[in-house]
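Annotated sample (chain length 319).
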Amino acid sequence: MKLSLTDHGQGIFHQFARAIGATIDGRFIYIPESKGGGFITGFNWGSDLRIMIRHYYLKDEIVIERTNKLAEGQDDIVFRLSGIFPPLIESDGKLAIEQPNVMICRHAVSSIIEMPLNTVFGSATIAVSRQYLRELFGNLDHPLAISILNAHENFVYETGISPEMVQTASCFLRPVVPESLESRYAKLKCEELLCLAFSQLLQRDAVQASSMHINDIKAIYAVKSKLLTDIHEPPNIASLAREAGMSEPKMRKLFKQTFGKGVFEYYQYSKMQLAASLLKQKRLTVSEVGYQLGFTNLSHFSRVFEQHFGIKPKKFQQV
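Output written by the structure step:
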């Protein structure tokens, strides 16, 4: 199914719901059993702040062509927290589990970074006006924070999901206050998630960020996709740069600016995150995980894993 939807500044999920025949009950949109399962919900506090919660999966492949038509003067920043909720179903090989990360960009950029198809979604997307962000975080002097608060050029930053974010976001699935207080409580939690996202960025080197052309953003995300697809093979920097249509120095610079890690460092990080998932969720043995990820020497796999998590893989699995 192919959907062409237009966002006029208030999101697209009601249009999406009508297109797939979902049931709308208050602020919840329930995915019909014929299409999958789960729900979409959210809160809207006017033009300054809104959040959409996606906790669902789809049986059918749905491609969304999204167009942004914001009101004049509207300058939203999007914080997309993917994989922040536990998956509704186990991956069966056909449906992938959403990769945990926080993506921060201008609203205009969010439409070109498509959500992956055939995926179990557990995400929270916050759209916040630049002016509101300045009221909350205008005192920050880190170059990345300044870029988000002031830059009019395109940018995108991605960072990891922290345990604190997971704990904060859990309230959107399990309300702990009466319905009359839900909106106020959710707004506080929404601002808390923004605070935690900035906290992650402040840990990066205080290096001046460069503006990025839309084509550069697409190319850098294509590099990321290539790394994750070929997780068993160490990255070939020269080959990745050629495919991205960039010089090696430019690709390295923009990749680190976007993801906070160099290409090889990001590759190793992603590989170990997958290893942790296979050990904990799939309950594979250490040797099965090591060999599956391309390690011919299990002692080397154990050392690399310990460098990332501070614990050997066998003990990690037992905790």
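Annotation: The first strand starts at residue 2 and ends at 7.
Annotation: Residues 2-201 form one domain.
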